[in-house]
Design brief:
Radius of gyration: 16 Å
CATH architecture: 3-Layer(aba) Sandwich
Order of helices and strands: HEHHEEEHEHH
CATH topology: Aminopeptidase
CATH class: Alpha Beta
Strand content: 15-25%
Number of domains: 1
Structural class: alpha+beta
Number of helices: 6
CATH superfamily: Gcn5-related N-acetyltransferase (GNAT)
Length: 152
């Protein structure tokens, strides 16, 4: 489905943060995603403030989201990508990815990165590949940190 087909069905993708429904985003990440279980609303709000965000809407109702952490010059990390379950299998995730990859401010990036447990096929359609030099990459990973945020 192309942009016009989605637009005719009342869908919109926007980077306008004032349109984002933080309740929908937080609920999905906290309760429905495998990567964001236990994330606090404050962490979600802070992550949105400091990222380029793409909201997917139908008739002004948020049905999808993606967040890009980037310097707009050399690097972008794509994360928190989702389409709500009732809206899947309609091509929205592909349209979202096309929109992100075609964003004018992101055309000269040298490297894009993401992590996924189950959507390799989607991202491969947009040029993502397994790390070629994975032995060069390092990380500090604290998965339990967000669960501890509200307990101090």
């Amino acid at each position: 489905m192309n942009d016009d087909a989605f637009l005719k069905k009342g869908f919109l993708i926007s980077t306008d943060k004032t349109l984002l429904d933080i309740n929908v985003i937080h609920y999905f990440l906290d309760k429905q995603s495998y990567w964001g279980k236990g994330i606090s609303r404050q962490t979600v709000e802070t992550s949105i403030q400091n990222s380029l965000c793409f909201g997917v809407y139908q008739q002004q109702k948020q049905v999808g989201f993606a967040r890009l952490i980037t310097d707009f010059a050399t690097f972008a990390y794509l994360c928190d990508v989702f389409i709500l379950p009732d809206y899947r299998k309609s091509g929205l995730s592909k349209w979202l990815m096309q929109t992100i990859r075609n964003q004018p401010d992101l055309q000269n990036l040298r490297r894009w990165a993401l992590a996924t447990a189950d959507a390799h096929g989607l991202y491969e359609q947009f040029g993502f590949k397994k790390l070629k030099s994975h032995d060069r990459w390092m990380e500090i990973f604290n998965p339990g940190l967000q669960q501890l945020e509200g307990t101090a």
